[in-house]
Amino acid sequence: MSDWYEQVRRTASLLGGRTPYARHMAEKALRDREGTKDAFFSLYRSYLSPFRAWPDPGWGTGLSNLERAVLVALHHDGWTEQETAYLCGRSRRAVRRAGEKGLRALGTDGTALAGTLRAMTEDLPAVAEREPGRNGAGCGALIICLVAFVLMVAYCSALVAPLGQHGDRAPSVALTFSELNPLRGPMQATIRYAYRVDTPVTGLTEGSYWVVITESDQRLLVEDATPSDLEISPNGRKLAYHSRSKREVVVYDLPSGKISRISKADASDNGLYFSPDGRRLAFTSEDKLYVWDGKRRRVPGLGPESTLYGWLTGGRALLIDDSEGVRAVDLSGTVLFSTEDSDHVGPLPDGKTWIDVGSDENRFTRYGRRTGRRSMRLPTTVRPHRVECWTSADTFVISTYGYGPSHYYRIDIETGEAEPLPALVPEDLKEVRFPGCV
């Protein structure tokens, strides 16, 4: 039995109660991650998946799934805020807000809640042995038969496909990945997108890693990039990331192959943003805000509870989130304007507009300067998942569920036009980055 079995099972019991379903999901997460600590990632993501309905755990009435997951991660499992953001697939800002809102709803504080959650799992009963004669052999045989049937149908379809090429329906061509090669030296390539995946530690990778896809569909492994952050310049010719080996923020210029080491970094540092023209990089280090354009200079105005949120349209100022609102600060530290707090996705790079995307219909609502509703012209078989990033003052990228030419679309905020972004990513995807994302 895995060393992590009891801890993962205790966490599952807080998310889904002392139910067979919660135990099953804990065991599934451990199997999927080969009994490693990464099982927590699978467990939390399955709990927050819109395709899974977990039973009521019997505590935290009124909490959303995200609020409950954040509270369990922070105050029972002992994860940091950044680690919790990674586990839940949310930003640190969203995690912080969910945790604060959850504690207010429960009328308690973190210390008291931690004691309560520990007490709820201390007497968790041992797993009962399976009853004689119910070892699941019959179900296993049925599953094997079903798998064999599906494989047979797939094989027959593959044989028939060449015969139907001249029919009414065009043949379907499966997309495949090219060989994965290291990103090394100068190359005349433009990056189309990048994705982060999670994998067991191997001789090639150290667990999670980033892959960039070029316009010519090359797959390039960014060997030295940590999982914490990676950004692509708007022209797709530069990468910024945290270096594993040097513990520094670096900028990789693809045409020249030059690597510029611009600042020391530690595990708590995050937030890398290229300016709209791609000439400057804004980043945080040790609770200080810097801009690099060949030389590094500090920008005043970042507090200990502040989060860098990106650039204002035109690159004349930076957006800083202080939990109570968003400020636009120019490079001298002067506040140009501030906005009230909002739980909606945003802000748009004008600093004054937020959007809220509903998952039950292909519409989004704009708040702030551009208040109103718009329909997104997505395929009828597609439903929105979440907003991935803004790519300009007038467009944002969303990920979707369902079937269509892509799982990612660039949406025009004025017309609702949806441009499919070709992106092929593996199932163990964590994040996707497109050029110019803020």
Description:
The chain is an alpha+beta fold. It is 24% helix and 30% strand. It has helices at residues 5-16, 20-32, 39-48, 65-75, 81-88, 92-106, 110-122, 137-160, and strands at 180-182, 191-197, 209-214, 219-222, 225-232, 238-243, 248-253, 259-264, 272-274, 281-285, 288-292, 296-299, 307-311, 317-321, 325-330, 335-340, 353-357, 363-368, 372-375, 382-390, 395-402, 408-412, 418-420, 429-433. The strands form 6 sheets. The protein has a 5-stranded mixed sheet with strand order 1-4-3-2-24, with no helix packed on it. A 4-stranded antiparallel sheet has the order 5-6-7-8, with no helix packed on it. Helix 4 packs across helix 7 (110-122) and helix 5 (81-88) packs across helix 6 (92-106). It is globular and about 60 Å long. The two termini are 43 Å apart.
Average of the residue pLDDT scores: 78
Helix content: 10-25%
Quaternary status: single chain
What class would the helix/strand composition place it in?
A: alpha+beta
- Overall radius of gyration: 24 Å
Beta fraction: 25-35%
Order the strands across the largest sheet as they lie in space: 1-4-3-2-24
**Low-confidence runs:** 129-138, 153-176, 201-205
- Give the biggest beta sheet: 5 strands, mixed
Q: Let me know the number of strands.
A: 24
Compute the number of helices: 8
Distance between the termini: 43 Å
Envelope shape: globular
Protein name: PD40 domain-containing protein
Keywords: Membrane, Transmembrane, Transmembrane helix
InterPro entries: 6-blade_b-propeller_TolB-like, WD40
Pfam families: PD40 (PF07676)
